[in-house]
Amino acid sequence: MAEGNLSAVLHAKNDLRLEQRPIPTPGDNEVLLRMGKVGICGSDVHYLTKGAIGDFVVKAPMVLGHEAAGTVVKCGQNVKNLKPGDRVAIEPGVPCRMCEFCKGGQYNLCPDIFFCSTPPDDGNLCQFYKHAADFCFKLPDHVTLEEGAFCEPLSVGVHACRRAGVKLGSVVLICGAGPIGLVSMLVAKAMGASKICITDIAENRLNIAKQMGAHHTLLVDSSNAEELASRVHAVMGKEPTITIECSGAESSIRLGILATKSGGMLVLVGLGPPEIKMPIVNAAVREVDIRGIFRYANCYPVALEMISSGKVDVKPLITHRFALEETIQAFETARTGAGGAIKVIISCE
Ligand code: NAD
Ligand code: ZN
Q: What global pTM score does this model have?
């Protein structure tokens, strides 16, 4: 690959181009990174095919990619935690560090956060990229750049399980066996959940979930949620105290409420239609708490520790690999799920 900064730039809906961009200069608290591996997230595909997610609209050309790892090539003068040659996982959200959310540790809620490949912020599906040094986490030698890139979706799973209160002996229902549902399952197991059932509308996703250690799987459809809840209870032999919803589908959120044991917790990770119909009184009178999830805060170190210790193995989720020059093809594979694609990784090296 020629020396330059080949970058995957989304100009508008369905207009993704590979083009050269200048190599950035790191600021005093930043590092310049030679990008290694970048995973394709459902949101990247969504920006490509729809040009927007909710209020975030692609109005100017934007580099895609935010599930990434790379190697430090240059450090700004204040950087003490890293040195050239260090391989790092890149936490894509850099908050303002000044507001009440940042100060309180909920920096994912910072209104001024920079977040890779969320308009108007450029992502890092490119050859060279600069980032805040304190949002880069050094990888141990035995952890690969692909695993480093996986710290991003894995952190969503860590945040979801933390907010759900998963602990030793938890009985957990996970709705949706996409990458996020699967990492949530891996984290829930690592946190001590003793029984996990995962649902999906696609049999192939459930087969993977089973291979990755789901205790139970349930093929669902959009039929009667009460009946589906009874099936969940029958399959698990118990009522789940925690449900982690990772599809965003209305029928799945309805199931999440009805299947969760009284006094339990439903966390909403999946982001589907902005408004839905759900049995809210049922949740209220049975004290089923409902919590939202937005990305993660202070989860990267835990995600990396889980990978490096071997507590969690994300490698089976990586189904397809492409070179940066094959980005269009890589996105097509991620979009269609061709060949049973779960996580598609692009190599920028
Ligand atoms: P994905 O589309 O690959 O996976 C979703 C899975 O849900 C698919 O396997 C699909 O077959 C399944 N599904 C669809 N309808 C269903 C239903 N009724 N019941 C059960 N399963 C059903 O997406 P992903 O990358 O795994 O992400 C999952 C969701 O999480 C998306 O909605 C995404 O936007 C959201 N997400 C949220 C956050 C956050 O911070 N809250 C972060 C990342 C992703
Ligand atoms: Zn802030």
A: 0.97
pLDDT 10s digit of each residue in the chain, 349 long? Answer: 556 999 999 999 999 999 999 999 999 999 999 999 999 999 999 999 999 998 999 999 999 999 999 999 999 999 999 999 999 999 999 999 999 999 999 999 999 999 999 999 999 999 999 999 999 999 999 999 999 999 999 999 999 999 999 999 999 999 999 999 999 999 999 999 999 999 999 999 999 999 999 999 999 998 889 999 999 999 999 999 999 999 999 999 999 999 999 999 999 999 999 999 999 999 999 999 999 999 999 999 999 999 999 999 999 999 999 999 999 999 999 999 999 999 999 999 9
* Ligand 2 centroid from CA 124, angstroms: 22
Q: Please report the sign of the dihedral spanned by the C-alpha atoms of residue 26, residue 136, residue 110, residue 248.
A: positive
Protein residue with its CA nearest to atom 36 in ligand 1: 270
Domains of the chain: 6-150+314-347 (3.90.180.10), 157-292 (3.40.50.720)
Lining residues, ligand 1, CB within 6 Å: 42, 156, 175-181, 199-202, 205, 220, 222, 246-249, 251-252, 269-272, 293-295
- Dist CA 169 CA 171 (whole Å): 6
The answer to whether 156 touches 91, Cβ cutoff 8 Å, is no
Give the Å distances, CA to CA, from 318 to 114, 179, 258, 269, 343: 27, 10, 33, 21, 5
